[in-house]
Amino acid sequence: MVSVVAFVEGASLTVSDGGSCVAKDVTFTPLADDTVGGDTLFDGNATVPTQDAYAVNGVEDDETTEYRYMTPPSLVMEGTLNSDTTWKGWNVYHVTGDLTIAKGATLTIMPGAIVKFDDGKSLTVASGGTLNAIGTRAQPIVFTSARDDEHGGDTNGDGGTTKADCGDWKEIVVSGSFNANYVNILYGAGGGASETVDAVKIYSGGVVEMKNSRLEHLQRYAVCDEGGSSHFENCVINDAYMAFRHGSGYRDVFDNCVIHDCSYLSNNGGQVFRNCIVANLTTDWQWGTQYGLVQCQNCVFWNKDAKFGPQSLPNVQSGSKDNSWADPKFMDPGNGDFRIAETSPCIDAGDGTFAPEADWYGQPRKTNLMVEQTGTPNAKGEYVDIGICEVQPRNVKSDIDLALVSVTADASATIGGVLNVSWTVENAGTANATGSWRDTFELIDASGATIKLGSYTVSGGIVAGGKRVFTTKFNVPSAAVGAARLRVKVNAERDVFEGMIMDNNVAFAGGTIDLALATYTPD
What we know:
The chain has no helices and 44 strands. It has 523 residues and is mostly beta strands. It has a 17-stranded parallel β-sheet that branches. Strands 9-12-15-18-21-24-26-28-31 form a nine-stranded parallel β-sheet, with no helix packed on it. The protein is globular, with a radius of gyration of 25 Å. The protein starts with a strand and ends in a 7-residue tail after the last strand. 45% of the residues are buried.
């Protein structure tokens, strides 16, 4: 069972000489952090956690201990990392000066970690250095601005008077290796109109492997290659001046990606785009042809306002083929939802020989849906969709089956008090459930209204045929009075692919919970 220790602003925990405090399976966090233990302040989203607003000193901890919104004092947040270093998940790492990963050193960033940069600051991976940022869909790793209060709270301590904006920080420069999965790079690439600043810049010998990631709200260029190589799978580049700058020799490949709301797709050519959607460019497809035209295969191009149309599609370059001009029919691109509808022309129109095994949502690729496929099948005759999402047949099954076996909760609780919950989850499938996923909790009152309690992120997975018991607690919101039922949804955000049938993921606790106002007797 994980315990939560919440601090009011300015408070601290210090273990003096001769004292002892062992913190295992403990989360330390500010009182304003609603993501664990619920909304203790009962103010909704009115307050957000402030970075380093509390202190913990002299505590004996291990890998199960989390320090949320607190910068561990032993970490180097500017200068040079000369030895292997691990940044834990859920922590906020405030980069106050340019930071370099030296030759021979590896920085490993765990799922859920948030890295914030002050104005104009950069992270450099030197030749021979390595940056491993492997997140999950439920716990992505975020690189963002120190002004971004949405991720990691109020790091710059200004009470929310400043907001994150495109170009707040500079770039990630890679001369070594950068391995990324479920990484969000936000509000970077800051520089003037004449500056060549990129969210990810690859120098000679640098290698970038990026999957299931998003590069968004960038002032200048999203990616640049000055002599290295890169491969992007199931990635989104959204709201940037240009998706890709430079490149040569077609060493930079994009498979099943979405490029949206940029001025240009490319500068100087030299990249390969396969099974990609390119939508809502405002100026032109390509600026300059120093390295030839981009190669585009089985891509869909679209501009909603028709500022320029299909007449300039990159179909004439050697290696370009099977591109089309059509509305991809995104679900909700304005809110970052780049799933495609069941009527999208992107369905079964990709090239199956290039597509990754799974899409951004963890769903398997190569699930034939249309009667008449227009793409290129793989050796098994399977077709894939274009873009980051594979639309699933309604009866598709998975080897993983998370089933909610039982739920128990306190029989009564007071408004503002704590409700203890325990639930058991079984993996009834034949494959191990790995990674992390989110379970959600709701109260259903007598009128049928739904009152959200919060969510719990499961990590560690469950082996095939195995069971795990989880416990947590929530603060009861003031809206809930009277008898109510507790409803739990396992894998509510579908972070782990279970197919389309998830009826056994939802269950109620037995009986009702009596929620009453707390009583107070004056002296």
